[in-house]
Design goal:
8 helices; alpha+beta; 5-stranded mixed sheet; single chain
């Protein structure tokens, strides 16, 4: 009798345990699925936030470049043209009244000042919107700028580039050009360096750029200033990164993806 009761009890208990086991497994699997969904949603939110931040950076940079282009055009077309007209009138005045020089009115000095102003307007306009960048690309534009700086004999800049470097999109080359300009200007103004070495290399995925001078480094207000933050924003907008290193001189290390490049 007891054996029969035990068998009946087991017949009831075993299915019950089976049901409990199945429920436990189901709860575990549901929890795993729920956690996986939460993690996936977190990744998606993070990706959307990063994408939104990148879009904001790109929009901000595009607005800056649009304003630079407008100012450069106004300088070249309006102020430059006005100075050129003033120069022509001055030259005609010199021809018509050569005696003015003998009376202490040095028109040639005034013309020299106007010539200098015209050259300055052209240089500022070029820095605001470097037309040669679109025509010749990043490397040739950098080489041209570096040649002009080296001619001053105040500092020596060495650019090491592999043969046939990648041709980037206009937006990416403009961002890298602006970063180079900022780095060089900071070195010229603050570091008291006599030499700058720029090493440029690529692999199948990224371009790596090291900018290093032999100066005294940048002041603290420059390290945390707007210029370096602008560089960080520009490189981040094209999917890259930049690191500033203080030590013997000043060093900046850049990395940017080659994807979506032209040519």
């Amino acid at each position: 009798m007891e054996t029969t009761q035990e068998i009946d009890f087991l017949n009831i208990l075993l299915p019950l345990l089976g049901v409990i086991f199945i429920i436990a497994i189901s709860v575990f699997l549901l929890n795993q699925h729920f956690q996986k969904n939460l993690y996936q949603q977190k990744l998606e939110r993070e990706e959307l936030r990063n994408k939104h931040q990148k879009q904001l950076l790109q929009s901000n940079i595009e607005a800056q470049e649009s304003e630079r282009k407008r100012i450069a055009k106004d300088l070249h077309d309006e102020l430059g043209a006005t100075l050129s007209i003033a120069r022509m009138h001055l030259m005609r005045l010199e021809q018509m009244h050569p005696s003015l020089e003998s009376k202490g009115l040095s028109l040639s000095n005034v013309r020299s000042i106007i010539d200098s102003s015209i050259a300055s307007v052209r240089q500022i306009s070029h820095h605001l919107m470097p037309n040669q960048l679109e025509a010749f690309g990043l490397i040739r534009s950098l080489e041209s700028m570096i040649d002009q700086i080296n001619e001053s004999k105040q500092i020596k800049i060495e650019l090491n580039v592999p043969p046939s470097p990648t041709k980037f999109s206009w937006e990416k080359e403009l961002s890298l050009y602006r970063i180079f300009m900022e780095l060089i200007q900071n070195t010229l103004k603050h570091s008291k360096a006599t030499k700058v070495e720029i090493n440029y290399r690529e692999d199948w995925e990224n371009v790596y750029i090291e900018f290093k001078d032999n100066g005294v480094g940048l002041p603290n207000e420059m390290i945390h200033g707007l210029g370096l933050k602008n560089m960080e924003a520009r490189i981040k907008a094209i999917g890259g990164s930049i690191e500033f290193i203080e030590g013997d001189g000043f060093t900046a290390q850049l990395k940017a993806p080659i994807e979506n490049s032209n040519g």
